[in-house]
Design brief:
Residues 1-17 form the signal peptide. By secondary structure, this protein is α/β, with parallel strands linked by helices. The chain has two domains: 24-236, no CATH class; 265-391, no CATH class. The chain has helices spanning 7-17, 28-31, 44-54, 57-60, 71-80, 87-99, 104-113, 149-159, 161-167, 169-182, 185-195, 239-243, 249-264, 266-273, 277-283, 302-322, 325-342, 347-360, 371-391; strands at residues 25-26, 38-41, 116-119, 122-125, 129-130, 203-209, 217-222, 229-236.
């Protein structure tokens, strides 16, 4: 006897069997409002989800997932700590356990949260982003907000979330103003457009929570016809920079700009990288030479690893063109130490070679023109190191 599959599962399997899995897109109504804009915000439902996630055991045990050394975190725990056994928190923890905290689950929860506002204390879908039907039956664990509205509404009501959000609204607004002051978004986009002229310009949306630790990610969305694009960056709030009394304002600006720049430029760098897959595969055959096993977030392919090297090194080039020499040198030294500590073991050498190539290229040269030279250097650098190891 044949078992009949539910219609929604049949549709999903057909979609998954196709050449390309559908991806979230910009809705028609929303895309008209965003062309060439930059928006920075702390959305209300996004913050509710970040609080619920921050109460899970997975987030509590990982300092990269939640920033605990702030008065805001202490206020959050004081207000919400008694609700860590709420069913929403438990369901999120169950999904995190299955899917891992560093995969699609986090970016999709963050993206979905931007689709909602609160009306009369309950979720209301503003449908800015169209989430494909396939995500209902995708072959990996996801947490879909529309399937869990009852739990989220319950969490919002039982915890008094709206009162907490209103109480901290001035703090959110202040962080947004600081972020705009520290980050020259127009300048970053102008530099990237100049150095990657074949990548179309797009609007930016920068979303943060004071709770976010080092888990940053970026999502590029398009309209269905591909004509309108928006890059959404989920990053940490700029309170760390402002707490550094030993830094000058340009240093604070450089640090805050680096946080968003290394997300923005993925949408410029990644498409160019895709043109050099064969060359990179040959140059990075031994991935363990370029990254340590301890690297948080995976980066378990040469493409992902190279893009991380390149996005951070591209910020060095931007900083070289933007900040006073003393600030540029301090910021560059800091990020070289940080990247090596993260586990990108050859970043210092890579960074300095890319800077050297950038300085030596003709005036009309672009960063995207440096790919063949830096990939050739990577291959030579690895071969030389192997020869030295053999000789010793």
């Amino acid at each position: 006897m044949k078992t009949k599959l539910p219609a929604i599962l049949m549709i999903g399997l057909l979609l998954l069997a196709g050449c390309k899995t559908p991806v979230p897109t910009l809705s028609k109504s929303y895309q008209r409002t965003i062309e060439h804009s930059t928006q920075v915000d702390v959305p209300i439902v996004y913050e509710a989800m970040q609080i619920a996630l921050s109460l899970t055991d997975t987030y509590q045990s990982d300092p990269n997932l939640v920033r605990k050394n702030t008065p805001y975190y202490q206020a959050m725990i004081s207000h919400f700590g008694a609700h860590k056994s709420h069913q929403l928190v438990l369901e999120l923890e169950k999904t995190l356990k299955k899917a891992g905290a560093y995969g699609e689950i986090n970016t999709l929860i963050r993206l979905q949260a931007l689709n909602y506002e609160l009306q009369n204390g309950k979720l209301h879908n503003n449908r800015n982003y169209s989430i494909p039907l396939v995500y209902n039956i995708a072959p990996y664990p996801l947490f879909l907000l529309h399937n869990n509205k009852r739990l989220i509404n319950s969490f919002i009501k039982e915890t008094g979330f709206e009162a907490f959000y209103q109480q901290h609204k001035n703090q959110y607004a202040s962080l947004v103003r600081i972020n705009y002051a520290l980050c020259n978004y127009a300048g970053m986009q102008q530099w990237l457009a100049q150095e990657f002229p074949n990548v179309p310009h797009e609007s930016l949306r920068v979303v943060f929570s004071p709770l976010t630790g080092g888990l940053h990610n970026v999502r590029e969305l398009r309209s269905r016809n591909g004509a309108t694009k928006q890059t959404i960056m989920f990053v940490s709030a700029p309170d760390y920079e402002m707490s550094r009394t030993d830094w000058t304002f340009p240093e604070k600006s450089a640090y805050a700009s680096r946080v968003v720049f290394t997300e923005i430029n993925h949408t410029y760098i990644n498409p160019v990288t895709d043109q050099y897959k064969a060359q990179l595969a040959a140059a990075m055959q031994n991935l363990s030479y370029w990254k340590a096993d301890k690297v948080t977030g995976g980066y378990n392919s040469f493409i992902l690893t190279f893009n991380e090297y390149m996005t951070w090194a591209a910020f060095t080039l931007y900083a070289h063109d933007t900040y006073p020499t003393d600030v540029f040198e301090r910021v560059t030294a800091q990020q070289e130490v940080f990247m090596v500590k993260r586990g990108f073991t050859r970043f210092k050498e890579f960074n300095r070679e890319l800077l050297h190539l950038y300085k030596q290229q003709p005036k009309e040269g672009k960063v995207e023109d440096l790919y063949p030279a830096i990939i050739k250097w990577m291959k030579t650098h690895y071969n030389t190191a192997q020869q030295q190891n053999t000789a010793s």
